Amino acid sequence: MKYAFFPGCVSKGACPELYQSVMQVYPRLGIELEEMTTASCTGAGVLQEKDQRLGDVLNARTFALAEQQGLPIMTICSTCQGVMSQANHRLTTQLDYLQEINDILKQEGLEYRGGTTIKHFLWILLEDVGDEELREHITKPLGGIRAAPFYGCYIQRPTDALEFDHYPDRGKSLERIIEILGAEVVDFPGKTRCCGFPILTINEKNSLNMVATHTKDAKSHGADIMVTPCPLCHLNLDGMQTKAAHQENTVIDLPILHLPQLLGLAMGMDPKDLGLKRNIISPESVLAKMRI
Amino acid sequence: MHTTLRIRRFNPEHDQPSSYYQEYALEIDPSDSVLDGLIKIRETVDDSLTLRCSCRGAICGSCGMRINGHAALACKTKMASMASEGETIQVEPMNNMPVIKDLVTDMAPFWSKIRQVHPWLQPEGPPPTTEYTASSEAMSHLNGVMACIMCGVCVSDCTVLEVDHRFVGPAALAKAYRFVADPRDTSSKIRLDTLNQPGGMWDCTRCMECIQVCPKSVAPMDRIMSLRAKGLAAKVSSTCGSRHAEVFTDIIKHKGILDEPMLAVRTFGLKNVGRLMGMLPLVWQSVVKGKVPLSGPLHRPIPGIQQIQRLYKRVRSKQ
């Protein structure tokens, strides 16, 4: 199981604990990674607001680099995954368009032939590592912990670009992982909704309202923690939670963990090695419940 | 096949009206739609069940409702696709609009938002003696958005409208795009300037719920993205929304990757002291917690950034 690793901007920027934790867990799962150090940002859907074709050129370049490596791409961000999946869907279903993009790439000695697979770490755990192998690495099951899933829009919609027809279990993959890790799934309506991050700088009030709505809702359903495969969701749900609570004149205090952080805890790793001290909302209460 | 419809009921004529769920067991044919099931209940079990429907063929847009948590047309949704043998299907009225009774919602706020974007052609000059014509080629790109049947399904599942009813919403913005992109319309700049205001095109979170649920593949969010691109090209006045897209694109050009602090500072603008000061608690917390970029605070450009810059130039030259 070898992948071209696309870490995304945020895991090496505002959420270094995500990069840190995935670096801890992947070698133990039989995964090999070759980091794509020259790959650019996907555009995150924002660059595409200005120029979608430019975004597709940048992503086609990344796919071509992965083809040169002869490897599928592994992402660790719902937004990176979704934006790349959408770009790949356009490029592989409209061959005239792929030709147009390749005409722009060819002067750099690059060509995308349409053969790159892009998979989020969440999907790799279930589809490539597999339930049985994963269970063998769980040395400290999360019994007694109630975990609410929070996906991030881009790993849930649109389902055609994300190939939900071929992989129908992807829509419930986070719940499945929580179960395998031994925790109890807290189902709540907001798990597939928007965290509000994309409008944080544009309409902060609405953005914080979304943070407060989902974290309070998860907590009222009994969650001890929330877990997300998206660092952008994490930035808002964790980093802006205190401000969101203040806006609503309440206290929320729900720890938000990155997926590899939760996985690492269940694999018996030291919270310090998983970067848990970097989370803004302290996970100490949950660690105490786990007797760590 | 056996299923149960769990329907959210509401009768405003009760002494103390409140919503509740009522379950109806049904024997169904695999080809039956949710609307077939609801009509069967109304005609054979409970004639008080209230719903709105007309064409039964996904044309009129009357039977929008939430089915297993997501908005859809009841006539276009097969019960067999929503539940396996013996399972329950939950049916509720559309979200983000007032409920009149049971599954019937008040569409008045929906139409009010549609009217807000002036959904009619605004050409310049004296009216022609015949119709306002345009070539098929000039109009074909609008076929998708003109397929909208005004069912309200996208509005029901809009995540922004859940928290802010002032947002104009996906259906009205898709309709606005239909006229902004119409080659015969001469009010595009005025329309874009209006949509550039708070509650307009920049308030969408890009959550794609509207794309996912639209029964006619109108893809409202894609239209909103096109409105934003047209707004930037038309040089609408600078707002946090327009600056966010411009600055993001510029940062990727110079660094290849995102520099989050620089994006925030340049989006707010150096004169926006209030917003900049509002960031300080989070910046301080992040520094204390060690949430600093792995490449250092200044975000070094990626190796080979010159190739990214050449690609930018080449894309621009082909526009």
Description:
The complex is a heterodimer of chains A (292) and B (319). Chain A is an alpha/beta fold and 292 residues long. Chain A has helices at 16-25, 47-50, 52-69, 78-93, 95-105, 121-129, 131-136, 173-180, 204-220, 231-239, 241-247, 259-266, 284-289; strands at residues 2-6, 32-35, 73-75, 118-120, 146-149, 184-185, 225-228, 256-258. In chain A, the strands form two sheets. Chain A has a four-stranded parallel β-sheet with strand order 2-1-3-4. A four-stranded parallel β-sheet of chain A has the order 6-5-7-8, sandwiched between helices. The mean pLDDT of chain A is 97. Chain B has a five-stranded mixed β-sheet. A two-stranded antiparallel sheet of chain B has the order 6-7. Chain B is globular, with a radius of gyration of 25 Å. Chains A and B meet through helix 1, helix 2, helix 3 and helix 9 of A and helix 9, helix 10, helix 11, helix 12 and helix 13 of B.
Measured distance between first and last alpha carbons of chain A: 31 Å
Please tell me what the overall shape of chain B is: globular
Secondary-structure-based class of chain B equals alpha+beta
Helix content of chain A: 40-55%
Largest sheet of chain A: 4 strands, parallel
Per DSSP E runs of 2 or more residues, the count of β-strands of chain B stands at: 7
Q: Spans of chain A with pLDDT under 50 lasting ≥5 residues? A: none
Give the distance, in angstroms, between the N- and C-terminal Cα atoms of chain B.
56 Å
Helical coverage of chain B, percent range: 40-55%
Mean pLDDT of chain B: 96
Report the structural category of chain A.
Answer: alpha/beta
Rg value of chain B: 25 Å
Oligomerization = heterodimer
Largest sheet of chain B: 5 strands, mixed
Count helical runs of chain A: 13
Shape designation of chain A: globular
Number of helices of chain B: 14
- With strands numbered from the N-terminus, the spatial order across the biggest sheet of chain B is 2-1-5-3-4
Which blocks of ≥5 consecutive residues of chain B have pLDDT under 50?
none
State the order of secondary-structure elements of chain B, H for helix, E for strand.
EEHEEHEEEHHHHHHHHHHHH
